[in-house]
Automatic annotation (TrEMBL), chain A:
Listed GO MF terms: antiporter activity
GO biological process terms on file: monoatomic ion transport
Subcellular location(s) per record: Cell membrane; Membrane
The species this protein was found in: Thauera aminoaromatica S2
Keyword Transmembrane: yes
Domain MrpA C-terminal/MbhE stretches: 694-790
UniProt cross-references to PANTHER family, sorted A to Z: NA(+)/H(+) ANTIPORTER SUBUNIT, NA(+)_H(+) ANTIPORTER SUBUNIT A
Full protein name: Monovalent cation/H+ antiporter subunit A
From TrEMBL, chain B:
Keywords attached to this entry: Antiport, Cell membrane, Ion transport, Membrane, Transmembrane, Transmembrane helix, Transport
Subcellular location: Cell membrane
Membrane topology: Multi-pass membrane protein
Listed name of the protein: Multiple resistance and pH regulation protein F
Annotated source species: Thauera aminoaromatica S2
GO molecular function terms listed in the Swiss-Prot or TrEMBL record: sodium:proton antiporter activity
Residue ranges of the TM segments: 6-27, 39-58, 64-88
InterPro entries reported in the protein's UniProt record: MrpF/PhaF-like
One matching Pfam family: MrpF_PhaF
Family the UniProt entry places it in: Belongs to the CPA3 antiporters (TC 2.A.63) subunit F family.
Cellular component terms (Gene Ontology): plasma membrane
Recorded superkingdom: Bacteria
Automatic annotation (TrEMBL), chain E:
Residue ranges of domain NADH:quinone oxidoreductase/Mrp antiporter transmembrane in the record: 136-356
Species this chain originates from: Thauera aminoaromatica S2
Protein's recorded name: Monovalent cation/H+ antiporter subunit D
Localization in the cell: Cell membrane; Membrane
Keywords: Cell membrane, Membrane, Transmembrane, Transmembrane helix
Main location: membrane
Automatic annotation (TrEMBL), chain F:
Main location: membrane
Protein name listed in UniProt: Monovalent cation/H+ antiporter subunit C
Species of provenance: Thauera aminoaromatica S2
InterPro entries: CPA3_antiporter_subunitC, NUOK/Mnh_C1-like
Membrane topology recorded in Swiss-Prot or TrEMBL: Multi-pass membrane protein
Lineage: Bacteria, Pseudomonadati, Pseudomonadota, Betaproteobacteria, Rhodocyclales
NCBIfam families given in the database record: PRK09094.1
Compartments it resides in: Cell membrane
Family: Belongs to the CPA3 antiporters (TC 2.A.63) subunit C family.
GO cellular component: plasma membrane
Gene3D superfamilies to which the protein is assigned, alphabetical: 1.10.287.3510
Pfam families, sorted: Oxidored_q2
């Protein structure tokens, strides 16, 4: 629990910090300090156990199925690192209190900073690799948020994105690596993995695992070639740079390598990959650092270089090298954090970080200058400071690389040492010389407590440098033992080891560095150079930006090729898939059993000659001759209806005939608003060959699709039918469903649930059509009164629709159409009543009824009909649906499932016994919905005409429907 | 020759005539040339199908086909007058 | 009576239709058909501005229908002959105008039915100025003969059937 | 031809004749539709199909079923009535549409000429 | 059994309740938004309660095997239509009801007034979704698909502007054609097997002759085309980004759910029919699903990278998630199903929240400004460094930012939220499923999913940075409480899903175990007896 | 008969495919209509073809082999009605799009070069 609270505490603090007001700078800092101190106290409390060599574990069940628990685990290494995180965190928080401007919105800053602290502790304390990845990515995320803290600045946004992209990508690689490791070992538990080193190294997946883990670590620790994000991360506020980007987060990568050293190290691959990256990084970082003009930029490259140094040590992989690596991690954290803070103070006090401007600051900032110079000396590896010790260990280790005769590693190390002396000199050059004039601000020593963290850290550098045995040795020992276990070597942290090769290398580096700096300053115009010599082409940041841009561009390019936003290709692909996929998957058909089938009926064939001919002609004409196409489609429709009739499906024939009628009227109502296509103006926009290619392709697809469906249909038709559920319906319709028309019983009883859904579809579509038409804007060309009605030669052009029907040309037809209305109504009732036993039913009846009303609309116009008949389609719809539902729900009363039919038997005088099945009432609901739907859609469409008639030639785009909207339809 | 063969032959003949008639209608439907020609052809097609339904009824001695003919007789004209009205007035419901 | 049964003839037709459709004379069908015969005209009443036809002289109507039926069959054969035997260009198809005295809409409707059912003639419309019927004749020999035939054989009897007591009756 | 064997000759012969006649007339009507030259001629073709062709078949149907089922089957009369009521409406509307479409087309071709009702 | 236990009636309530409430709303005057909203909300809450109750019943052993069967119209399966509530369908119902509630509350402020009929259409959409999740009959599935689609057509066009209409034309046309394809598939399956009931189909498939088996496979492949068009598998899902980008926010959130219906249908049908015991047909098409799913993931990832606006990005995100699910279903035919379902839960919740969120964030700044901002950043055009003082973030913006980040994390599969857990457990399960030698497709799929996550990170970060961090004065958007609560709730659910991953996985493991026993499933569905009539009530049957 | 119907279904479906691949909305809706016919016939054909055996059972005790398969008929009925509704919807949307965009292209705008 104690362990859990160590990780939880910062997150809790983060939430609290986020909730504070904008200007609560002091309270925020106190909170953060409290969190850090609390964390330190907890860590301290754990010390006795850890010091005793115990591994403290805390487990919480999370995903037991995947063998994944939330495990916190402290050993020496983890403890040392958490102390580092907490202690530097404490100092940084204190520093930040003074660094942040009073206008800065601090809650966000401290919330993110504390969340980072928690994440970092999580990384360090994870006892489970997956959990480690989780916290790992959390550090990337919080780092992203902190770098982007001043997000109104473009460099901050860029830096944040760059850092996040690189480190999060690395994190993904790490996740993959962890998965592979877990797969090899069979567990993600750190202890298990660490114990399975040999198994891992012998596994065929070792190299992928190593590469993936290395990618995670190297990106995080800003190793070549992923180092470029770190300088750009300097857009963050300085406390962030000093905490995340020098002392802790960037150390997560090397921490991971150290952590996994027992599991992964000890192979040539390890040395080459890790060590190789480290060497490149250390040289490049150090060299480039010399030529920076920005204080923080210089420190960033120097950090890269030092991280490279640590990586090299880990890559060398000998136990002593690991000792040196851990040691240098700690040392670097102290001097680099203090240097960043010093740089922050300079920036804060002078308003600039430009090395070309800053001079002579020791006069105005004497204490800061002293501190910074000492810290720089530590960075340069000057004896009696901590940097010297670990660097000398490094030199010593490089000598072992590649045996006795291979010296290149040592040369590289010395070169790096020279460079670091040079950039350290460059850094401290701001304190010397004549004081600069015209700085943005007049510098003063910072507040006492802002400087305090620097002082403390510099003091640590000194203490460790002078008396390593007393100060750092116990800590280091803890970490080393935890990492190396039985392999832990004997080592000596003395300041003086006598005259030996490493010492010579140190001296070379110091002297050579000073010379190099002098030469560069005098002869190479160091202060004015715009570009880094030799390496300026190696611009990772530019490469990153280009990659990102290319990625987007490339994705767009690719998307245009593998995707489309147009409809036609999509439909084409669907049809192509329909044609190919089944064949590809199911393969060629097996030998087909054919039953003797009915012979060729020339009359039936003649009928389909018509149907098919109409379909083809419709396809030919649909572009310019819409009315012709509509009539031709009607031809196919009526042949289809006749086919249904012929082939024993009278219900279908009736429905098809009625639907055909209603569809024709509907499309005509729509065509009114679709201006005609005229051949001459619709010329081809594409070159003809393209048109022809497309047409050929489409034609091939059409022929292929048609053939495929024909073949399938034929295959089924000549194939003996399997044992179907249909027999049940035929046998039970009359006995169980109470009707002899099995199709109708199917619709209102056996599968009434389908019908319920179907009438819902009708209602939904009607509502949608109505809603669309409420906002309908006609095409300008069709908005006015149709030319036919403006034709002066037609007497009807001077009459209202009602007049045309009352006395005009529709008078005589009107007599018939009006006389037919009651007949149609009765026929509708007839079809409704007989439906259960003979062809008919609610659908057909509803359609007949709707068409009967529609004829009246056609005859006398909307206004006339609606002034006499208040048909409220919405109510029909609602009523029908509710009636169907209620009928179904009635079964609940009897304890039966929804839609179970019941029949009431009523004895009537004179008439005899009447059977009233509930299915009949259900069908009535169907009837009402069909009427409501048809009326709502067609009438709403017809209402559009009123607008044109109300305002001839003007106000055509006005919203709403004028008078029609007011009238309930 | 029985009555059955006689009637069967007569029905078949009538059916053939009706289907031929439908073919002719379709021809007119396709070639037009004017829209009213097509409307007329479509209407005649409907009427032919009505006759076809009646003939099928006689052929199979079944009453099941009657309703289809009834529906066409009573409501088959609706789409035709809608088309005609569209041609004449530019809209179906004014 | 008028209120509940606006047109007994229509109601009777509906009942008859119901019985024919159901092919049954059971009491239940009489009841239901009767109810529909009453209900349907009532419900459709608002949409019947011209009311329902009153047949004043049923006998004259039957005579007229019989005569028309013969005429229809005769014309059928005429037209058949023309279609089968004559070249299209030789057929003298013409529009003619027939001045009408008939005013009753129901009468006009009946006239239109007779004319249109008779192959060879198609009713176009009644021209509003002058109340002339515009007619298309498939094969016109003599316009005057046509006008005369229509006026005497069709219009006169129809006027008898519908308009004898008060001319223009039947309109609401 | 289920049950047609039971049909007596006195009924079968008129039914067959009516069927043949009806078929022929229907065909001839549509032949007119197909082969006549102008629309105004073509519209007369289907009239015989509807009047005589359908009529003959309806009669045949009535006769056939009445004899077959030994009861009066005359509900085909309904079809005749409905056809008689709807066919005039159809031809009137199609004809009028054609006339005014042609008139309008003529006016557009030659705006100066105020063509009357042909 | 003469009376159905009343708890069994709960199975049909998720279909009936929205239907009745929707039908009640139809005649209500357009202007009475409050009443309709109240009705809709009540329905939504009740629906949620019923869905949870079904989940408890299914999981609590109330029904044998955790499978509740409801015979609509009291006809035994396969003759009548059977509704089946098992753990999976109950889970989907809960998910639907949850998102629906959030969306309803979200739309209360503004969206339900943009056009007419929002509320009834929404209820019908719920009916269609719930019906599709519950039904066990292929044709009934078609009907519910149509109910759902018809309502979605209306909702996609809701708010009627050119963009929506253009998107709607594409969406509707594609789906109409897909519906026709669906029908062809169903009819072929019926021709081959003589049944429409999915459980019955599973029971019959092994007994079919070679020819019928072939026909069934062709039919199933055709059917899958329809499902996969709705599930947006590449190359059938191009309609999706356009539709998402133009639909109104609440509709977009519901669309997220609808994509999952296609995937659900594939899962249901395939596991029942081509799972264990399918004889020669066993495993039919699974490999194609994997390949298609992988292509879809790749396509979605490319699309996310190429997208500039949130809606489109969300669309491609949905494609990625769809593709992942399909690949997973196909990949091991069930071994990694629990993880797949967990992924489905997480990604659906996050994506729904994201769709709602986009609409809110778009109020921050006009889209035009964003385009300029991105070019400037791409070409590293620095605006002049300003004073290093931060910009205060008011509460609403902080809320939006946090929610955005949470959604982005889940969608990209980044730690620590549900997306990562899902992805990790998927990987783990896939690797664990192949103890000796992991096949190349598995590595390919894992790599692809990681790449897709990366693409999502890059794209979402770009969008987030542009939305929340771009230069210029940030105007805190006007945010209604009723708009924030649903987004927050969905995000919190994602967090809960992560924290309670163990519990959720327990449930999902039971779900998967049930799904893989297709024989038990068939036995339960086909064995459910209809309710017998009481001896006195004669003649009804 | 079977062959005729199969070929016809193929032709109508093919014509439908051709039309739905065309660029104009009216072509698309015409194609959808044609395809629906073909698909309805396919569903119908799955019950095999029966002449004069409508599934109308006069008595409870019947031989099911003497009647056409009612199930496909029920399905087609539903499909017809749903098809009608969706056609209406597409139609209204199509004229709406024409009004808003000024184009009758299926994408709601003329393709850009
Ligand atoms: Na149905
Ligand atoms: Na799993």
């Amino acid at each position: 629990m104690l362990l859990a609270s160590l990780v939880l505490l910062p997150f809790l603090g983060s939430v609290l910090a986020a909730l504070m007001p904008q200007d609560a700078r002091n309270r925020e800092s106190w909170l953060a300090i409290g969190v850090a101190v609390g964390g330190l106290a907890i860590a301290a409390a754990l010390f006795p156990q850890v010091a005793a060599g115990e591994v403290v574990r805390a487990e919480f069940a999370w995903l037991p199925a995947e063998g994944l628990d939330f495990v916190l685990r402290v050993d020496g290494l983890a403890w040392v690192f958490s102390m580092l995180v907490l202690a530097i965190g404490l100092l940084v928080v204190l520093y930040a209190r003074y660094y942040m401007s009073p206008e800065d919105p601090v809650p966000r800053f401290f919330a993110f900073l504390l969340a980072f602290m928690g994440s970092m502790l999580g990384v360090v304390l994870s006892g489970n690799l997956v959990q480690l990845v989780v916290f790992w990515e959390l550090t990337s995320l919080t780092s992203f948020l902190l770098i982007g803290y001043w997000h109104h600045r473009a460099d901050a946004r860029r830096g944040a994105r760059m850092a996040f992209t690189v480190t999060a990508t690395g994190g993904l690689c790490l996740m993959a690596g962890v998965l592979v490791l877990g797969h090899i070992v069979g567990s993600y538990d750190l202890d298990v993995v660490l114990a399975a080193g040999d198994q891992i190294r012998d596994h065929e997946l070792y190299l992928p695992a190593l590469v993936l883990v290395a990618l995670g670590a190297l990106t995080k620790s800003a190793q070549f070639p992923f180092h470029f994000w770190l300088p750009h991360a300097m857009a963050a506020p300085t406390p962030v740079s000093s905490y995340l980007h020098s002392a802790t987060m960037v150390k997560a990568g090397v921490f991971l390598l150290v952590r996994l050293w027992p599991a992964l190290a000890g192979t040539p691959e390890w040395t080459w990959i890790i060590g190789g990256a480290g060497v490149c990084t250390l040289l490049i970082g150090a060299f480039v650092a010399i030529f920076q003009h920005d204080l923080k930029g210089l420190l960033a490259y120097s950090t890269i270089s030092h991280l490279g140094l640590i990586t090299v040590l880990i890559g060398i992989g000998t136990p002593l090298a690991i000792v040196a690596a851990i040691f240098h991690i700690l040392n670097h954290a102290t001097f680099k954090a203090s240097l960043f803070m010093a740089a922050g103070i300079i920036d804060h006090e002078t308003g600039t970080r430009d090395l070309r401007v800053l001079r002579g600051l020791r006069h105005k900032l004497p204490i800061t200058a002293t501190l910074a110079i000492v810290a720089s000396a530590a960075m340069a590896g000057v004896p009696l400071l901590n940097g010297f010790l670990s660097k000398e260990m490094f030199f010593a280790e490089t000598l072992h690389v590649g045996g006795d005769r291979n010296w290149w590693m040592s040369y590289a190390a010395v070169a790096m040492g020279m460079f670091s002396v040079a950039y350290s000199l460059r850094f401290i050059s701001v304190f010397f010389g004549t004081p600069a004039q015209g700085l943005p601000r007049d510098p003063h020593e910072p507040p006492r407590w802002m400087r305090f963290p620097v002082e403390l850290l510099v003091l640590a550098c000194l203490v460790v440098g002078v008396a390593p045995g007393v100060s750092i040795e116990p800590l280091l020992h803890l970490a080393v033992v935890a990492t190396l276990g039985e392999d832990a070597p004997a080592y000596d942290l003395a300041v003086w080891h006598g005259f030996n090769l490493p010492l010579l290398m140190s001296v070379c580096a110091l002297v050579g560095g000073m010379l190099l700096y002098g030469v560069l300053r005098r002869h190479f115009d160091l202060a004015r150079r715009e570009r880094v010599p030799l390496l300026h082409r190696l611009n990772g940041a530019q490469a990153y930006e280009t990659t990102m841009l290319q990625l987007t561009r490339g994705a767009e390019w690719l998307l245009r090729r593998v995707g489309t936003r147009r409809l036609q290709p999509q439909l084409m692909l669907m049809m192509l898939a329909l044609l190919l996929i089944p064949l590809l998957l199911a393969g060629a058909p097996p030998a087909w059993t054919v039953i003797p089938v009915r012979g060729f009926d020339p009359i039936f064939a003649g009928m389909w000659l018509i149907g098919a001919g109409c379909a083809l002609a419709a396809a030919w004409m649909a572009k310019y001759h819409r009315l012709a196409a509509l009539a031709l489609v009607g031809g196919t429709g009526i042949v289809t209806a006749a086919t249904f009739l012929w082939l024993s499906a009278p219900d279908l024939a009736l429905t098809q005939l009625m639907v055909e009628t209603v569809t024709t009227v509907l499309i005509l109502l729509g065509l009114r608003w679709l201006p005609p296509r005229i051949e001459s103006i619709a010329g081809p926009v594409q070159p003809p060959w393209q048109v022809w290619t497309r047409r050929t392709r489409d034609l091939a697809l059409a022929v292929g699709g048609g053939l495929a469906l024909a073949a399938l249909t034929h295959a089924v038709l000549v194939h003996p039918a399997s044992d179907t559920i249909a027999d049940f319906f035929l046998l039970n319709a009359l006995g169980g469903g109470g009707g002899s028309n099995v199709v109708n019983v199917l619709l209102v009883d056996f599968r009434s649930f389908d019908t319920l859904g179907e009438i819902t579809v009708l209602a939904v579509v009607a509502l949608t059509v109505y809603a669309l038409l409420r906002r309908f804007r006609p095409a300008p060309e069709s908005a006015g009164i149709p030319p036919q009605q403006r034709f002066e030669g037609d007497p009807a052009s001077r009459q209202s629709p009602a007049e045309q029907a009352g006395s005009g040309y529709l008078l005589v037809p009107g007599i018939y159409l009006r006389l037919l209305l009651p007949f149609m109504g009765v026929i509708a009732v007839y079809f409704f009543m007989r439906g259960h036993n003979l062809p008919g039913g609610g659908f057909v009846a509803g359609l007949i009824f709707a068409v009967a009303i529609l004829v009246q609309y056609m005859l006398a116009g909307t206004v006339w009909v609606e002034s006499r008949l208040n048909l409220r389609p919405h109510r029909w719809l609602g009523f029908g649906l509710l009636l169907a539902c209620t009928t179904g729900l009635g079964a609940w009363w009897f304890g039966h499932p929804f839609l179970t039919t019941h029949t009431a038997h009523v004895e009537w005088p004179l008439v005899g016994e009447l059977h009233l099945p509930s299915a009949f009432v259900f069908d009535l609901g169907v009837f009402a919905v069909v009427v409501g739907t048809t009326m709502l859609m067609l009438v709403a469409l017809a209402h559009q005409s009123l607008r044109a008639h109300r305002h001839p030639g003007e106000d055509l785009t006005a919203d709403g429907q004028g008078g029609a909207e007011g009238r309930r339809i | 020759m029985t009555t059955a063969t006689l009637l069967s032959a007569a029905t078949l003949f009538a059916l053939a005539c009706v289907v031929l008639a439908m073919l002719l209608c379709t021809l007119r439907l396709m070639i037009g040339p004017s829209a009213q020609d097509r409307v007329l052809a479509l209407d005649t097609l409907w009427m032919c199908v009505m006759v076809l339904a009646l003939l099928l009824g006689i052929r199979h001695g079944s009453q099941i086909y009657f309703e289809a003919a009834l529906i066409i007789a009573l409501l088959g004209f609706v789409s035709t007058i809608a088309l005609a009205k569209f041609l004449m007035r530019g809209e179906v419901i004014e | 009576m008028r209120r509940w049964l606006p047109s007994p003839l229509l109601s009777a037709s509906l009942l008859l239709m119901w019985l024919m459709l159901n092919q049954s004379l059971e009491p239940a069908h009489w009841l239901l058909g009767g109810a529909l015969g009453v209900l349907a005209p009532l419900l459709s009443q608002p949409l019947q501005p011209h009311g329902h036809a009153r047949i004043r002289r049923p006998l004259a109507l039957f005579r007229l229908l019989w005569m028309a039926a013969i005429e229809i069959v005769r014309s059928c054969f005429n037209v058949t002959q023309i279609i089968l035997l004559r070249r299209s260009a030789d057929v003298n198809s013409q529009f003619i105008r027939v001045p009408l005295d008939l005013k009753s809409p129901h009468g006009l409707a009946l006239l239109s039915c007779l004319i249109n059912s008779t192959p060879g003639t198609v009713w176009v419309e009644i021209l509003p100025d002058g109340h002339e019927l515009l007619l298309h004749v498939f094969d016109l020999h003599d316009e005057a003969w046509w006008v005369h035939t229509i006026k005497t054989r069709y219009e006169q009897p129809i006027i008898e059937v519908f308009e004898t007591p008060e001319p223009g009756g039947g309109r609401t | 031809m289920s049950g047609a064997e039971s049909l007596p000759w006195w009924a079968a012969i008129p039914v067959a004749l009516l069927l043949v006649l009806g078929g022929i007339v229907t065909l001839v009507g549509t032949l007119g539709l197909a082969r006549l030259q102008s629309f105004y001629q073509r519209i007369h073709g289907p009239a015989i199909s509807i009047a005589l062709g359908a009529g003959c078949i309806l009669l045949a149907s009535m006769l056939y079923f009445t004899v077959m089922q030994s009861r009066l089957v005359i509900h085909e009369l309904l079809i005749s009535v409905f056809v008689l009521m709807t066919a005039p409406v159809v031809s009137m509307l199609i004809m009028r549409a054609a006339v005014y479409r042609d008139l309008r087309a003529a006016r557009e071709m030659d705006p100066g000429n105020d063509a009357g009702n042909s | 059994m003469t009376v159905l236990p009343w708890l069994n009636h709960l199975i049909i309530v998720p279909v009936l309740l929205p239907l009745i409430v929707g039908a009640l709303m139809i005649p209500i005057n357009q202007k009475r938004h409050g009443l309709k909203f109240g009705l809709g909300l009540a329905s939504g809450m009740l629906l949620w309660a019923v869905a949870v109750a079904l989940l408890v019943l299914a999981d609590g052993g109330y029904w044998p095997g955790g499978i509740g069967v409801y015979l609509a119209a009291n006809w035994a399966a396969p003759f009548g239509i059977a509704l089946v509530a098992d753990r999976l369908s109950a889970l989907m119902l809960v998910l639907t009801a949850t998102i629906a509630l959030a969306v309803l509350v979200f739309s209360a402020r503004r969206w339900d007034r943009v056009g007419v009929s929002f509320h009834p259409l929404f209820q019908f959409l719920l009916m269609g979704l719930n019906g599709a999740f519950l039904t066990n009959d292929l044709f009934n599935l078609f009907v519910f698909f149509e109910v759902m689609l018809a309502a979605s057509y209306g909702l996609v066009l809701h708010g009627y502007n050119l963009r929506r209409i253009q998107a709607g034309m594409q969406y509707i046309a594609v789906n109409l054609v897909a519906s026709l394809v669906f029908l062809i598939g169903v009819s072929l399956i019926y021709a081959a097997s003589g049944t429409l009931n999915i459980a019955d189909l599973g029971a019959r498939v092994a007994l079919l002759g070679a020819q019928d088996a072939w026909l069934l496979q062709v039919g199933a492949a055709v059917l899958a085309l329809a499902f996969l068009t709705k599930g947006a598998m590449w190359p059938l899902g191009f309609w999706l980004p356009t539709t998402y980008a133009s639909a109104s926010a609440p509709v977009g959130a519901m669309l997220v759910l609808m994509t999952k219906v296609g995937v659900y249908a594939v899962l249901r049908v395939w596991l029942a029919v081509f799972g264990e015991g399918a004889g020669a047909a066993e495993g039919f098409g699974f490999a194609a699903l994997t390949l298609g799913g992988m292509a879809t993931v790749l396509f979605g990832a490319i699309g996310m990278l190429a997208s500039q606006d949130g809606g489109r990005m969300a669309g491609y995100g949905a494609i990625v998630s769809s593709g992942t699910l399909l690949a997973v279903i196909g990949h091991s035919g069930g071994a990694v199903l629990a993880s797949g379902l967990y992924y489905l839960l997480g990604s659906t919740l996050a994506m729904a929240a994201f769709m709602l969120l986009i609409e809110l964030t778009e109020r921050i700044r006009p889209p035009g400004a964003a385009l300029i901002a991105i070019t400037m950043e791409a070409f590293a055009i620095e605006d002049k460094p300003e004073d290093p003082v931060g910009v205060g973030i008011p509460g609403t913006l902080a809320f939006l930012g946090l929610s955005f980040a949470a959604c982005a994390l889940v969608i990209a599969g980044m730690p620590p939220l549900a997306g990562f857990v899902a992805k990790f457990s998927l990987f783990h399960a896939m690797l664990a499923a192949a103890p000796e030698g992991v096949p190349a497709t598995t590595w390919g799929l894992i790599g692809l999913m990681i790449l897709a996550g990366l693409a999502a990170i890059i794209a979402l970060m770009r969008l987030g940075v542009r939305t929340f961090w771009a230069a210029g004065a940030v105007t805190p958007p006007r945010l209604q409480f009723s708009e924030a609560v649903p987004v927050g709730a969905l995000v919190i659910l994602c967090v809960l899903l992560t924290v309670q991953a163990g519990t959720v996985f327990d449930y999902l493991d039971r779900t998967t175990a049930g799904l893989l026993r297709s024989g038990d499933y068939a036995a339960r569905v086909l064995g459910e007896p209809p309710v017998l009539r009481a001896p006195g009530a004669e003649g009804a049957r | 008969m079977e062959l005729v119907l199969a070929i016809s279904v193929g032709v109508v479906f093919g014509a439908g495919i051709w039309l739905i691949l065309r660029p104009r909305t009216f072509q698309l809706i015409t194609g959808l209509l044609l395809m629906s016919y073909a698909v309805n016939l396919v569903i119908f054909a799955m019950g095999r073809l029966w002449v004069d055996k409508p599934p109308i059972t006069p008595t409870p005790a019947i031989d099911p082999a003497q009647f056409a398969d009612p199930l496909p008929q029920g399905l087609v009925l539903t499909a017809i009605v749903i098809g009608f509704a969706t056609t209406a919807l597409y139609l209204v949307m199509m004229i709406g799009a024409r009004g808003l965009s000024g184009s009758d292209h299926v994408d709601g705008e003329e393709p850009r070069e």
